[in-house]
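Tokens as discussed.
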């Protein structure tokens, strides 16, 4: 009986941990110009954007994590191609991903 309880607990923990990873949504985004997120300057190029729920985003180049930022994810009424909105100094204010807007919170 004790062995069954331990096995069940291990399976439950494994499922809980893997579901957290499954909640992250991965998208490809390309910056055509220098981009600045949380003070980190990103050179033009292709990046992977991982949305973690509705509150944080991680930006990767290859497998290297470059920056994490707080965001607000809002729905769009219809599908759009991926696009990036920036201020004149390069700070990213918003990234549109198909049917959602990722709005960066400025600190």
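Sequence:
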């Amino acid at each position: 009986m004790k062995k069954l309880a331990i096995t069940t607990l291990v399976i439950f923990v494994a499922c809980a941990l893997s579901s957290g990873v499954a909640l992250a949504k991965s998208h490809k985004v390309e910056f055509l110009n220098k981009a600045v997120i949380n003070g980190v300057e990103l050179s033009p190029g292709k990046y992977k954007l991982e949305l973690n729920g509705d509150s944080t985003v991680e930006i990767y180049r290859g497998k290297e994590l470059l920056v994490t930022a707080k965001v607000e994810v809002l729905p769009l009424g219809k599908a759009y191609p991926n696009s990036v909105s920036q201020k004149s100094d390069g700070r990213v204010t918003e990234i549109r991903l198909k049917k959602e807007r990722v709005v960066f919170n400025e600190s």
